[in-house]
Amino acid sequence: MVILSLLLVVALVAGCGPNEAPKPSESVQPTQTPTGLAAAEITVQVEKDWLAYYEAAAKRITDANPDVKIKFQEIGSFDHIGILDETDASNPDVADLFALPADRLTGLAGKDLLGAIDAKKIAGRLGGWSDFDAGLGGLLNLDGEYLAFPFNIETLIVFANEKNAKAEGIDLDKPVELGSIKNPAHILLPVFDAWFGVALTNSADIALLKQEGDGFVADLTADWGDLEAGKKAAITELYDYWKLNYDNNTTLFDDGAGWGYISDKFTDGETGVLRIGGPWETNDMKSQTDDGANLGIYPIGQIKVAGKPLRHWQGGWGLAINPRIEEDKAKVELAEAMIGEIVNPQYAVDLFKATGKILENVAVDAYEASDLNEIDKKVIAAVIESFEISPGRPLFQEFGPVWDTWKNAVLSWNSVVPGTVEAAYGELKASFDAMMADLK
Questions:
Q1: 371/135 Cα distance (integer angstroms)
Q2: Interatomic CA distance for residues 248 and 168, integer angstroms
Q3: Same domain for 36 and 114?
C-alpha cells in the first residue's frame, strides 16, 4: 500500500482553471450551476489528460459556492478502481468521486464499495433524456439505487477501408450482408471473441445468458430443432463464414493470429473492407487508411447477418461516489454537483476533446455544429445511432463464464471441422450446457 500511495499524484487544486476554459455550446440548452452548497470538501479522481477539463468544471462550482473545495487525485481510472477493489472505501488513497466502466459496477457494489446518488435529480437538472432508465441510467441502477451516473456511452461501430472497397467492387452505399461475401477478407469479423461475437448473436436476439426468474437461461442450450428460425439463420451464417475462412486457409479463427490477420488485411492495398471496433480504435484505423483519407465510418448496422443489422451492447462509463461520504449530506451534494458539471451538456464537445467520451443526453446535431474534425463527427454519429439500436449490456457477475465458453466452442471448429451447421451448433450447445451446469 505504501507503493500504491506513492503512485498517486495529488493535485491540491481548487478552482484553478486551464489556460483556455471550455466554451459552452450555443446549440445546447444552458444548465445552471448549483448554488447554495454548504461548506464541504471532496477529492475527485481524474486522469492526466482530463485534468484541465475537470479543473474548469470545478471552477464553475467553486465560483458559485465559495465555501466548497474540490481537490484532485491524478491517477488512471483502472489503477484507482484496482486500489479500491483490493482495499476498502475508507482508504485515503481512494477518491470521493471517481469514474468506472459499467462492467465493474456489480462487482464493486457487491463489496459495498459504491455509494448511492440521486441520479434522477442530476438528470432532471441537465436534461436531454426522454427516458433516463431506458439507457445507461437504468443499467447503473441496482436494487432500486443508482450507484453511478452516466459518464459516456460506448458501443461498437463499423470501419471501412474505402480504397479497398472500390478495388474489390464492394458497394458501401448500402449495408453488406455477411452471407453474400465471396472473399473472407471483405468482412473481418472476430466472432471467436465474444465481445465482438455478441454483435452477431444480438442481431438475432440470441441470449448467451440472461436472467429468468431466480435463475439464468441460455438460448444455446436448446436443441437445434427447437431454435427459432431467426436464430438458426444467424448461426448458419456464422458457420458459413467460418467455413469460408477455413476453406481459404485464413488465420481469422485463431486466437493468436486472428487479430494480426485483421490488421494486415484492413491496410490500404489489401482486400479487407469492413471491420467492427470501438470509437477508441479510431486512431489505429486512421493509421491503416492513409491517416484516415480512405477511412469510412458507419453505424454497426452497415453489416447484416441473415438480413438483420448487427447490434452490439449499450455500454459505457459512470461517475460514482465513495460510500464513506454517504452520511455527509454536504459532501454528497457537492459530489453530485461535480458530476453534473463534468457531464454538463453545454460542454459536451470539450468533454469529447479531453476524454473521448460521448454524452448520452446530447443530440448528434450539437456535435455536428461544433469545430470537431469530420472523422470525429462521423464516429460520434455512428456511436449514437448504434447505441440506440442495441440492447443493454449484461452487468451481472454470472455472465463472466460466457466469454471463454463462446470462444472455446467457436475455436473448436478448426479442430473438429464440423461438416454441417447442425454439427457445428452441437459444439456450441455442448459448451453452453457445461457452463449452465456449473452455474447451478
A1: 27
A2: 17
A3: yes
Phi, psi of 235 (to 5 degrees): -65, -35
The residue written with cell numbers 426468474 in the block is: 213
Domain enclosing residue 234, as ranges: 157-312+400-439
Dihedrals φ, ψ of 37, to 5°?
Answer: -70, 140
Contact 407, 193 (CB under 8 A): yes
Nearest to 98 by CA among 142, 47, 153: 47
CB atoms within 10 A of CB 206: 19
Q: Quick check: 276 and 310 in contact, CB under 8 A? A: yes
Query: Which 3 state secondary structure label does DSSP give 99?
Result: strand
Examine the domain organization and report whether 41 and 138 are in the same domain: yes
Number of domains in the chain: 2
Residue 87, domain CATH: 3.40.190.10
- What's the predicted TM-score (pTM) here? 0.90
Q: At 138, list the grid cell.
A: 437504468
Asked if 150 and 215 sit in the same domain, the reply is no
- 173/305 same-domain check: yes
Going residue by residue through the chain, which has 440 residues, state the pLDDT in tens, using 9 for 90 and above: 334 333 333 333 333 333 455 666 555 666 789 999 999 999 999 999 999 999 999 999 999 999 999 999 999 999 999 999 999 999 999 999 999 999 999 999 999 999 999 999 999 999 999 999 999 999 999 999 999 999 999 999 999 999 999 999 999 999 999 999 999 999 999 999 999 999 999 999 999 999 998 899 999 999 999 999 999 999 999 999 999 999 999 999 999 999 999 999 999 999 999 999 999 999 999 999 999 999 999 999 999 999 999 999 999 999 999 999 999 999 999 999 999 999 999 999 999 999 999 999 999 999 999 999 999 999 999 999 999 999 999 988 899 999 999 999 999 999 999 999 999 999 999 999 999 999 87
| Three-class DSSP category at 180 | helix
Q: Tell which phi-psi region holds residue 292, choosing left (phi > 0), alpha (psi between -120 and 50) or beta.
A: left
